[in-house]
Amino acid sequence: MTLSKPSPHSLSGASGDRIELLHTFVRIVEAGSLSAAAEQLAATQPTISRRLQALERQLGVRLLQRTTHSMRLTLDGERCYERARELLSNWASFESDMRGVSDEPEGVLRVIVPHAFGQARLIAPLAQYLLRYPRMQVEWLLHDDRAIQDYIAAGIDCAIQVGEVTDPGLVAIRLSQVPRIVAAAPALLGGAPLPQDPGELAELPWLALRTYYRNEVTLSHADSGKRRRFAIAPRFSTDSLFALRSAMQHGLGVGIASAWVLADDLASGTLVRLAPQWRAAPLPVSLVYPYARFYPARLRRFAELIREGAPAIFGDVAGG
């Protein structure tokens, strides 16, 4: 099929806004499919398809080769994608420069947060963000799986990540760290004295938080720094901190969890701390987002708020 060549003014007018068409094309490529791009852009798949066809007609080239099961860029599509990303970044930077101090964020911010922090500690700063910037909307996505790191393809602006950040393509701003302790329900001990040594812990039934430990536990002594490692055979494993806590409350086994999550249970006696001189390595908490030449106001303002509020948000968390 031969595509008609564009007229000098064919990228404007009824055929659609040039920036919108390029933005849609970039989102299709990075999302991996028209349907995923449609979901991220809050549009229908036919609308996304029409925008792609309009851009191809206006440029006079085929950008994508599509079959029922796959999609790949043509050589022209690869060139267009690289130039479109650069153009969109420059356009966003230009808009920001022209707006200056009045650069108020608007649109949709998509954030990945861990279940526990996302439901308990981060709602207050989220509310502050939305109240401060009334033209913003936020998609608050709860995930405990650290493997969700292809933020560009998922259309994610940023994430709060617990654990070490290993992706070199991400900016990581350290916010705090979370102490982790060993605890269990008193009934699990059957009236026996509280274990004081890791060797005693190894003999008990265990629960696993798969995101951070599965079949092996490493603990450090608070004073000497001595480390002890031992294998476990978990009766129950989960990727949810809240599910782990519930299983611990029901006396199913010993678990390692963030100290702040267990604080109320320890105070009430629902759980007891085991081997109190021993603890698991603390987990760093970071704000992460992809490297880019330009960051939109919606992300910049959110990052500023989280960084400035970190002492209040995570203060007692870091203190255990």
Concise synopsis of the structure shown:
The chain has 320 residues and is α+β, with helices and mostly antiparallel strands.
Structure report:
The chain contains twelve helices and 13 strands. It is of the alpha+beta class. The strands form three sheets. Strands 3, 4, 5, 6, 8, 9, 11, 12 and 13 form a nine-stranded mixed β-sheet that branches. A hairpin with a 4-residue loop joins strand 1 (64-66) and strand 2. The longest helix is centred in the N-terminal third of the chain and has 25 residues, at 75-99. It starts with 17 loop residues before the first helix and ends with a helix. The relative contact order is 0.14.
Total DSSP E strands: 13
- The secondary-structure class comes to alpha+beta
Distance between the termini: 66 Å
Outline the low-pLDDT stretches.
Answer: 1-16
Shape: elongated
What's the rounded overall pLDDT mean? 86
Which series of helices and strands comes N to C?
HHHEEHEHHEHEEHHEEEEHEHEEH
Fraction in helix: 40-55%
